[in-house]
Structures are given as C-alpha cells and as structure tokens.
Design goal:
This protein has six helices and three strands, in the order αααββαβαα. By secondary structure, it is mostly helical. The protein has a three-stranded mixed sheet with strand order 2-1-3, covered by helices on one side. Strand 1 and strand 2 form a beta hairpin. The protein starts with a helix and ends with a helix. The protein binds zinc ion.
C-alpha cells in the first residue's frame, strides 16, 4: 500500500469516527492519533468542509463522486489508482477516495487455464457405421 492511499484511509477513518458521535476515551484517542498522522494542510481543508456540515472525504464509485454524484474526470481516477496525487472533487471540493474493491473488478478477464495443452476433440465415428447397419 502506498503512502497516499494510507493517508486517504486515515482521513476516511477519522471521518467515520467524527461522524459516529461516539465520545468515549478510546475514540478520542484514536482521532488524536489519526490527526497526528495526517498533514496539517490536508487536515485544514478537511476541517473547513466538516465545519460547513459536509463530509470532508468521499468515495468514488463507478467514476462518480458519491458526495455530489458528479462524474470524476478519468485523469483524476487514474492518479488516485496509481497513488500519484490527492484529488479533490471539482464540484463539491471533497477529497476523493477510490476504494480498493473497484480495482479488483477486471480480474474476471484472466480465466485460469484448466487445460494447458488441449487436444483437439475427435468426433466419434458412429454415424457411418450406424448408417451401414440400417
Ligand atoms: Zn463531489
């Protein structure tokens, strides 16, 4: 896992803790720990969104921002996929997170080769014989 993905996952975790409205010691400690890991610049933008009552980070599903349902440019998706850069939704300004599940989908194309050396199936020569005997 690359650093960028880890950072985004920390943001997702932090957000889920903050929106859970659980205020026990453990949750607060976990939140403090997460905040310490996330760069202040990123945290600052996230906090501004949360202060407006929005979610600071949202997931991308089918190339669509689940926060505002606007299409995310493919360039942004690719950058996220390769862990190159942090992406903000152009429409709602939230941080975008691409869940790993979306990457696993095209695995269907690679089918296991059950017969590595397939022999051409020979047709049984029943038809001729049966014709003669009739
Ligand atoms: Zn959006």
């Amino acid at each position: 896992m690359n650093a960028l993905n880890e950072l985004l996952q920390d943001l997702i975790k932090l957000q889920s803790l903050e929106f859970s409205e659980v205020e026990d010691k453990e949750t607060k400690a976990a939140m403090t720990e997460l905040r310490a890991k996330i760069p202040s610049q990123i945290l600052g933008h996230y906090d501004r969104l949360v202060a407006k009552g929005k979610k600071g980070i949202t997931t991308v599903r089918d190339q669509v921002c689940t926060g505002c349902h606007m299409r995310v440019p493919i360039g942004g998706i690719m950058a996220l996929k390769h862990g190159e850069d942090i992406q903000l939704c152009e429409n709602c300004g939230r941080y975008l997170y691409l869940p790993p599940a979306a990457e696993a989908e095209p695995a269907k194309a690679a089918e296991p080769t059950a017969h590595p050396n397939p022999k051409p199936a020979r047709k049984p020569r029943k038809s001729k014989k049966s014709l003669q005997t009739v």
